[in-house]
């Protein structure tokens, strides 16, 4: 039982085509907002997020190196203090120790800059999350969730090194127990 083109209600067809056009237009607008250039006009939010994360990694690495070098310096100066035979050497060693301590403390302030960068990332991710939520509403949240469940059922999950890269547990997450870690080495 096939319908011929003549049997199709012209107004209903026009309404469906218009609805489809509006649906696609809204979807395009949501995607455009996600990839629009930032305030400087040359990068989108995803590029900025990546650069901010790279800067966090770099700043953390630099600070860690300075802190470790500072601790080694303090250890070295402490050894030299123990070996002092002439009291007149003490002020210079104390000044050196003070300078190493100040440099180490300054390196510890990296968390302030890191916090600022993380705040930028969180704001960008919240913006992206908002856009994705809008697209889910357009598409139909239940339909997308069903597709996600089906994809998860088909997926084998991470394997190899990827399965091991979980990072530290967040507060409220179940951490790997020491027994599970010990079992890896048995």
- Give average pLDDT, whole number: 80
Which series of helices and strands comes N to C? Answer: HHHHHHH
Distance between the termini: 68 Å
| SS-derived structural category | mainly alpha
Percent of residues in helices: over 70%
Number of strands: 0
| Separate helix tally | 7
- Overall body shape: elongated
> Spans of 5+ residues with little confidence (pLDDT < 50)?
none
Largest sheet: none
**What proportion strand?**
under 5%
Compute the gyration radius: what is it? 30 Å
Descriptive notes:
This protein is an all-alpha fold. The chain has a domain at 12-138. It has seven helices and no strands. The chain has helices at residues 10-35, 45-82, 90-107, 110-139, 141-154, 160-164, 178-185. The chain is elongated, with a radius of gyration of 30 Å. The termini are far apart.
